Amino acid sequence: MNTDPVQQVLDRLEGVRQSGKQWSAQCPAHEDRTASLSVCRGDDGRCLIHCHAGCDTKDVVAAMRLDLSDLMYEDGLAGHYTNGQSKSVQSSAQKPKKQKLYSGKVLATYDYTDPEGNLLYQVRRHEAIDETGAVVPGKKTFRQWHQDASGNWVSGRGDAELVPYELPRLLESSDIRFIFEGEKDCDAANEIGLTATTNVSGAGKWTDSLAKYFADTNVVIVPDNDEPGRMHAQQVAASLHGVAESVRILELPNLPPKGDFSDWLDIEFGDSAEPDDIAKRMTKLAIATTEWTPADAPQEPESDAKQVMAPIAKFTVDQLREQHPKLHEPVVDGLFRKGEIFNIVGATKSNKSWTGYGILFSIGSGRPWLDRFETRRGRVLLIDNELHAATLSNRLASVITAMGLDHEDYADTVEVWSLRGNMRTLPQLMREFDDVPHGHYSFILLDARYRFSAEGSNENSNDENRDFYNCADQLAAKTGAAVGMVHHSTKGDQADKRVTDVGSGGGSQSRAADSHLVLREHVDEGCMVLDAAVRSFKRIDPVVLRWEFPLWRVDEQANPKDLKGARTKQQEQRAEADAEADKAIVAALMNERLSIRKIRETVGMGRDRVERRLDALQSQGHVAYELTNVGGNKCREYYIPNEALEGGGLG
Predict the structure, then answer these.
(1) Less packed terminus of the chain by CB within 10 Å, N or C?
(2) Based on the domain organization, do 414 and 502 belong to the same domain?
(3) Angle, in degrees to the nearest 10, between helices 569-589 and 596-603
(4) Of 107-111, 280-284, 362-366, 452-456, where does mean pLDDT reach its minimum?
């Protein structure tokens, strides 16, 4: 049975036509020739229907042989719709599913009112029940309701303005305003004499429109002890900074993981403390907390989600060998293993994504990739952030056909997440795997790598590349999967570059990945040379691939040395001379910082040549400079950055 309320209604109607995010159809409750029934999805996922001919909603629902409850949205569908687009396009493959929760008995109601105390909307907290009606311990659900003009309760907030909880109390008080994550904590705080409020729906749902109610006040934000709570506190603080008189974030002492204010009250005071004593303790803690400033916010590129710092793994040699007696299992023999990260690199329109699809379905079906590289069959995941779902579906269907796959070859092993129009950075994406068991996936493909970076990030920054690939390593460790990234090449000719230097970005990206699969243009039309740099396998020889839509085929007759744009003998000699010059400059900088004049004296080269090679070395991350004052003039002093030293220099 389809549990999507909108689709369930549409399946029972005649003359359905879609316009944007709404549908029109013939009303089943009267003889309708003008398609007078409107259908759309509410903010909380419920199905909204309206007959413009005047039929009562109950009559329309009854005519479809449904109940009003069938129009409601189940908690189990949370995340099923993103920007109005169903995730059902992702795959028929089985994914770990969260338990579906339904709303049972009402446990508490929370009224949101205007400044005069008139009801705007109500939040109801329910006990959570499963499909059998049994109560699910430790879980709860929430529903929002408002009253229509006739006083009838209607699901949702309607068009009511978003306001803080307990708004009249908030406006009347001159005390510190405490902002909690939920209404239950607010009620507990207000009962002991504090002035407490929250925003509807809790963590992550704050909007800047609420800030005006806190103008020129002293605000203390009290987060729950978990990552969503801390992120929410930062969001609220940033919104109120410059509006409120002061903003503080109070992390309650001795609060256990995932604990909230109500838990803290039980732990710290039990049933014995007087309300005044608790209020005084909270006020004292608040005053002792340092004021929040924008400098306290997480910095880019981690502003959307702090990367998790795990404890450092420390071993003796014996412990290391005992705990890691062998290499991880290969996913594709000769190329990459579980827990490793790698790049698929190529120029624009070099069929990088199609290369990834071929690898994806080869692993999912257990077939050799390119009839050359053996695979271990396993569950694979494509996370695409470039293509519309329809385009992606069409592409994958063509690969399935070309590979001659049967349905059972991929139905339970190949999954797809479509992020077009619903972007995630890599740290944000990590949260989607919180409930995915380790080892569920053998291979995860991210397409395209640059769109998983934080807004405003600089892919030529060694620091930002280091952090990005560190996060990719965390994803691989968290899931146990090999993580591949479709990545674009640097501009210009790639023929004479080392495999690890073809990918765009700072030098740290070349050293961070365990493997690089690189596509370089061959002199023959429609051909590419596949070359690879691998860390945990023997070096593989490059091969020529010939494009036969939608797959690559190995061309054994073509010579992989015939790269398009390969250098002439004169160019080779110049390149060798440049390489020698680079080594001489780097050697001169190994022990001290030098100005251009000092470098020239040390290596015996002219100014133009030294400056040209320094520019090249700097772009590759091998050298850097700082401006210093020499005799009142600004002077560049060049040095070898730490990451270049750690990477082994020019080698």
Answers:
(1) N
(2) yes
(3) 110
(4) 452-456
